[in-house]
C-alpha cells in the first residue's frame, strides 16, 4: 500500500498556478510546493507539468531546479518524474557513479515486474539515446558485467506456473556452485537472469529444504567483491523486496551523516506503491516507526517533504 | 516491398465460409485454400480465424492441420499465424532442433526492429509460458550461449544518431579480437549485442576503411564452429538482411533435395515485408528469377502456395 495522501478533487491548472505563485519573485514558498506535489499521484504530477508548460511556456522541472537546492531539490526532482523515467535517471546516475551503486541497477532489474523493467528500458532510450544494457556493459567488466547486463536485459515470463522438478535440479546447481566456490558463474547467472520470479522462489525454497540453510545465508559466506555483492542483492530483491528496502532504509539512517541518496530513493520510488508495507517491516525490525527515524535524521524542507511522502504531516 | 497480391474488397465471414466449404466432406480443395489465404494480409487472416471460430466453433488452424500435410501444411501453418507468434514458433523449433538452426535465432534477434523483437518475446511468453532467453540459455553452452542469449535479450536503441569516435575505437576492438584470434569474446559479444544498428553499421564501415577488408571477410578466416557461425550470421543480418536472405534462399534451392524449411521460412516471413526486394537481389546474383527457381524445385500445392506468396499465379 501507498503512503501518500491525495485529496479527492484537484485541478492541474490550479496546481500549476499555485506552483507558479510559490516560485515567483524573491524567495520560494517551499511549503506550498510540498503541500501540492507531495499530495499528488504520478499521473496528476504529469498533468500539472503539462498545465504549467501551457500556462507559462516554461518547464516546471527546470523552474523548480533553479528555485530549490540540496537534498530537497534532488528529492523533488526524483518525485516529479514519471516512474519509468525516474528509474532511467537513477540507473544512469548509478552506472556513472564512482561509488559503484550496482545495487540500484539490481533493484530496478529484479524488483520491477517484467513490463515495468521494459518501460524503464524504453525511457532510457528516450532520455539517453542509448540502451540501458549498452551503458551497463561499457561501465563494468568480468562476471559483474555478465550478471548486470543479463539482469537488465531479461524479459522474464511473468506467470505463476512453476516446474518443481526444475526448481529442484537448479537448487542443486546453485548449491554446488556456492559450496564449491566455483569460479565459473555462468550457470548462476543463467538461472537468476532468465527464470521467472515464481520459478526462482520455488528454486530458493528447494535450496533451503534440501541444503539446510537459505541461499542468502550461504551467499554471505562468499567473498564480498562487487560481483558477489550484486548477486546477493539480486537474490534478496527477488525473495523479498520489502525486506530488502527495509534494510536499505535502516543502513541509510544508521550511517553516520545519513545516506540521503538512499533514503530519498526508497521513499520516492515506493511512496506510491508499497511504502506502507515497508514501514511495517521497518517498525517490526527496529521498534521505531520509520517516520520518527526519518524525522530524527533529516531537517528543513527535505524532512518535511519526506514526511509528507510518508503520509505524515507536520 | 511485399510480393503478395491482395484484392480490394474482402470479407472475413465470406472467406471463413469458403474455407469451411474447402475443408468439408471427402477431399480438400487446396486450390481454394491457397486462393484465399495466399491473398490476405496478416490482419485479415486474423479476422478470418476469428470469423471461422465464431461461425463453426472450431479453430481454423487445427482444421487445416488435419486437412493438409507435408511441406504445404507446414507453410500454411506458418503463414496463418500472426508474425510475432510465428517467429516465436520458429525460434522454439530452432532451439529444440538437433540440426542446430542457430541462424534462425540470430535472424529473429538481428533483423527485427527492437520493437518487433520485443513482440516476439512477448508472443513466446504467451505460447510457451517461458521466456525466449530462458530456453535459448538452457539449450546452448559456452560462448555460443553468451552470444545468443545477449542477442535475443537486447532492446537496442532504435535511433539514427551515431558516435563516430566510438565507431572508430570499437572497430579497432573488433579487429584486434579477430586478428589475434583471441579466445575471450566478451567484447565482441558486448558490442554486437548492445549497440544500436546505426552505430554498428558505422563501426563496420570504420572497420573496412581502417583495416583494408570488411569484417565479414575477416570473419570467414575464423574457425567454423557454432559460435563463429552465429557471429558471422549476426554481422551479416545487421549489415544487409536482404543479401542475407538471398543467400539463404540460394543455398536452400541449390541443396540436393531442396531445403524446404529454409525456403518456406524466408518466403512466409518476408512475403508481406520485403520479398520483392529480396527477389531483385536474387535475380542479380543468380541471373534467374526467384519464382522460376522455386517452381523448378518444388511441386504440387506447396509449389502453388509459394508462388502465390511470391505474387505469381499459375
TrEMBL record, chains A, B:
Query: Its Gene Ontology biological processes?
Result: response to cold; response to heat; response to salt stress; response to water deprivation
UniProt cross-references to SUPFAM superfamilies, sorted A to Z: Annexin
- What is this protein's name? Annexin
Which Pfam family is an annotated match for this chain, by its short name?
Annexin
Residues annotated to bind Ca(2+) 2: 253, 255, 257, 297
Question: Which cellular component appears as one GO term in the record?
Answer: cytoplasm
Instruction: Quote the record's binding site residues for Ca(2+) 1.
Output: 25, 27, 67
Family listed? Belongs to the annexin family.
The GO terms describing molecular function are: calcium ion binding; calcium-dependent phospholipid binding; phosphatidylserine binding
Residues engaged in binding Ca(2+) 3: 295, 298
UniProt keywords (A-Z) are: Annexin, Calcium, Calcium/phospholipid-binding, Metal-binding, Repeat
The domain comment in this protein's record states:
A pair of annexin repeats may form one binding site for calcium and phospholipid.
Amino acid at each position: 500500500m501507498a503512503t501518500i495522501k491525495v485529496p479527492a478533487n484537484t485541478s492541474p491548472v490550479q496546481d500549476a498556478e499555485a506552483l507558479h505563485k510559490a516560485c515567483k519573485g524573491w524567495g520560494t514558498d517551499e511549503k506550498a510546493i510540498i503541500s501540492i506535489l507531495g499530495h499528488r499521484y504520478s499521473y496528476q504530477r504529469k498533468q500539472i507539468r503539462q498545465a504549467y508548460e501551457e500556462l507559462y511556456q516554461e518547464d516546471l522541472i527546470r523552474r523548480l531546479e533553479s528555485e530549490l537546492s540540496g537534498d530537497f531539490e534532488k528529492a523533488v526532482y526524483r518525485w516529479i518524474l514519471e516512474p519509468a523515467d525516474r528509474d532511467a535517471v537513477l540507473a544512469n546516475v548509478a552506472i556513472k557513479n564512482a561509488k559503484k551503486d550496482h545495487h540500484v541497477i539490481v533493484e530496478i532489474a529484479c524488483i520491477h515486474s517484467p513490463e515495468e523493467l521494459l518501460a524503464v528500458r524504453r525511457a532510457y532510450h528516450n532520455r539517453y539515446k542509448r540502451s540501458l544494457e549498452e551503458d551497463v556493459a561499457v561501465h563494468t567488466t568480468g562476471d559483474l558485467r555478465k550478471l548486470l547486463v543479463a539482469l537488465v536485459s531479461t524479459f522474464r515470463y511473468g506467470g505463476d506456473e512453476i516446474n518443481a522438478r526444475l526448481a529442484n535440479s537448479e537448487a542443486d546447481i546453485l548449491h554446488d556452485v556456492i559450496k564449491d566456490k566455483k569460479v565459473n558463474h555462468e550457470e548462476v547467472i543463467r538461472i537468476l537472469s532468465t527464470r521467472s520470479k515464481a520459478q526462482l522462489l520455488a528454486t530458493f525454497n528447494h535450496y533451503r529444504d534440501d541444503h539446510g540453510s537459505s541461499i542468502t545465508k550461504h551467499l554471505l559466506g562468499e567473498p564480498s567483491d562487487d560481483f558477489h555483492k550484486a548477486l546477493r542483492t539480486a537474490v534478496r530483491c527477488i525473495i523479498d523486496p520489502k525486506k530488502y528496502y527495509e534494510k536499505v532504509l535502516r543502513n541509510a539512517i544508521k550511517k553516520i551523516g545519513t545516506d540521503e541518496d538512499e533514503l530519498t530513493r526508497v521513499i520516492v520510488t515506493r511512496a506510491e506503491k508499497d511504502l506502507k508495507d515497508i514501514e511495517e517491516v521497518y517498525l517490526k525490525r527496529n521498534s521505531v516507526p520509520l517516520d520518527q527515524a526519518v524525522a530524527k535524521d533529516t531537517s528543513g524542507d527535505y524532512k518535511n517533504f519526506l514526511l509528507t511522502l510518508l503520509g505524515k504531516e507536520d
